[in-house]
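Query form — protein Serine/threonine-protein kinase SAPK2

QUESTION: What is the three-dimensional structure of this chain?
INPUT:
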Amino acid sequence: MERYEILRDIGSGNFGVAKLVREKWSGELYAVKFIERGQKIDEHVQREIMNHRSLKHPNIIRFKEVLLTPTHLAIVMEYAAGGELFERICNAGRFGEDESSVLHSQPKSTVGTPAYIAPEVLSRKEYDGKIADVWSCGVTLYVMLVGAYPFEDPEDPRNFRKTLQRILSVHYSIPDYVRVSMECRHLLSRIFVASPEKRITIPEIKKHPWFLKNLPIEFMDGGEGALQNAKENDSSQSVEEILSIIQEARTPAEGPKLGGQFLGGSMDLDDLDADADIDDIEMSGDFVCAL
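ANSWER: The structure tokens for Serine/threonine-protein kinase SAPK2 are given below.
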């Protein structure tokens, strides 16, 4: 991290904290996600890093590199100064359909608020991650349109147990005061389907009338010029170097933690026993944002 100057905190989550840094030689700003070394560096973290490295698109946060400190794994990525989507929704109340038609989101894993978790993930069954992510994107779309989570009880929104039950039963509705087109309602109804086999897929979404409405030409199938340019300009670390750093990061830290800024009291379904049911899950009221 000698090449970077840490400026300030910009976010926090169940796994760590994110900080704004400046690269000393170029003056460029980057966001760095710090994850404590040791048991938190598992296959989920490795998969997230490798998936992020493989994403090359002008509208997706660009991966730069991973570094190792004595206490943390540091993931360096492009800095987007616009703030978090959820914060913008909170400030705006909700977005209209035109503003919601192009989604820029990072679906959650089974950590923190359960609002984005697909039923099959919640049930701890084997699942297709791409199909589970469709559900998470549907939650994001609903939040952008309505300004609230779809499966929270409006009378008791902090009750995680009720949220879990409503997810499993696919219990949601669109308030009367929100104007949502029939095409958008139909898309949500095809996303919020408990059975993954019957849920709409990404290729099908890309052909849905609501998705195609007012879609910029560069986002249509075949408009891949910007994507190709991003690939050509890529200077990511090699896969071998990244995997080596991740493997070394699995060694627990010996020094102090990063300012004691890690959050506790959130829900991590991966720590539950396989046969745990809803009544066995201990909930908290802490909100943990995605990094």
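ADDITIONAL NOTE: The chain has a mean pLDDT of 78.
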